[in-house]
Amino acid sequence: MTDIDRAVAVLRSGGLVAFPTETVYGLGADASNDAAVGRVFEVKGRPSDHPLIVHLSDASHLDGWAANVSSNAKLLADAFWPGPLTLLLERSSSVSSAVTGGRSTVGLRVPDHPVALELLRSFGGGVAAPSANRFGRVSPTAAAHVIADLGDDVDVVLDGGPCRVGVESTIVDLTTDRPVVLRAGGVSIDRLEEVLGYSIDIFVSAEPSTGGARAPGMLEAHYAPNARVVLCAEHEIAEVLIEVLGSVTGPVGLLAGSALVGLPEDIVELEPAGTADDYAAVLYSRLRQADRLGLRVLVCVPPPEVGVGVAVNDRLRRAAAS
Ligand code: TXA
Ligand code: MG
User: What is the C-alpha to C-alpha distance for residues 308 and 23, in angstroms, rounded to an integer?
Assistant: First the structure.
């Protein structure tokens, strides 16, 4: 029996399978099995009104899960699936409200990872999966992160190595006249606009601490390590480090895109995160590393706010605000 066969058997019997995607690891259950979906909420410790994304093997399943699939939805699915884009659509009547948190919409995505796609093809149905971390923790981008967070509560962990993109999918709400981005992610706004042929809005929650009504999972604490995160531009770094060192007892770390010179000696410098794309790929493992090192404060120099750098800046701002 291959690992995939075993994972499919677990899904069919209502169990939980953690699997790699190109963004982050997912905690998967059979989306048509309410008891299995219920276990996802239980294991994650997630409120039941926070909907789950349903993962599909290809876009041909779209009409089975969503109603009134617009031409915009088809256009985006064609352009970006498999890939880090979640489409929010009106749900078809057969989709369980356990998955959608009681909402009339459903989030759908075809992930771009060979292990995820093999699992989805062999299983045949939709796999409901949030990120495979406990509620309020940083998303896992390696199998070891999943095991550290969920341990024996997950029946199978498929190891597909580190996630290529490293931040979650971009979520686009297609249930209104004009598409709205609810979460910046692996597909940049520029690329979405290129395909749609017009500019689109980014939804900014009126109340960041609750994530607003449209994407209830956008809590700040989702992206926060235990260390306090302080953001600063590269030219302010010396000033900020001196101020932080003077006001905190315990180790202080630094995460930046490139190596910096002339830092105070007692700063714990994490390995530079690189360009915006590289920064996204290592961000969550660096935040976990900060906690393993017991850092009290992590000073971060964010990457430029272009491409996937927009999502990195969004996560860092949420981490710093919590
Ligand atoms: O990259 C990703 O999207 C990863 C991988 C595993 O696919 N999944 C992920 O799932 O990040 P999760 O559950 O951690 O985040 C999904 C977000 C949550 O904020 C949830 O509230 C929102 O999507 N969401 C899902 N379905 C929704 C719906 N029908 N209406 C509003 N928000 C929805
Ligand atoms: Mg999550």
Answer: 11
Tokens of 157: 């962990």
Distance of CA 8 from the midpoint of ligand 1 (Å): 22
155's enclosing H/E stretch is none
Residue 223 reports pLDDT greater than 50: yes
* pLDDT computed for residue 136 by the predictor: 81
CATH superfamily for 228-320 is Threonylcarbamoyl-AMP synthase, C-terminal domain (3.40.50.11030)
pLDDT at 209 (0 to 100) = 43
Does an H or E element contain 34, and which?
helix 34-44
- Grouping H, G, I as helix, E, B as strand and the rest as coil, residue 100 is helix
Rounded CA separation 157/27 (Å): 9
Determine the atom of ligand 1 nearest the C-alpha atom of 107: 26
CA proximity to 215, closest of 259, 262, 171: 171
48 alpha carbon – ligand 2 mean position (Å): 14
Ligand 1: residues whose CB is within 6 Å? 21, 23-24, 26, 50-53, 84, 86, 88, 100, 103, 105-107, 109, 111, 129-131, 168-169, 171, 214-218
Statement: the pTM of the whole predicted model exceeds 0.90 = yes
pLDDT at 300 over 70: yes
Q: How do beta strands 170-173 and 180-183 pair?
A: antiparallel
216 Cα: distance to centroid of ligand 1 (angstroms): 9
Residue 269 pairs with which residues in a beta bridge? 254
219: DSSP letter: -
Determine the atom of ligand 1 nearest the C-alpha atom of 27. Answer: 6
Closest ligand 1 atom to residue 129 Cα is: 6
- Centre of ligand 1 from the C-alpha of residue 235, in Å: 36
The domain segmentation of the chain, as residue ranges, is 3-202, 228-320
Domain covering 3-202 assigned CATH 3.90.870.10 in the classification = yes
Provide, rounded to the nearest whole percent, the portion of the chain with pLDDT above 90.
Answer: 85
Model confidence at 213: pLDDT above 60: no
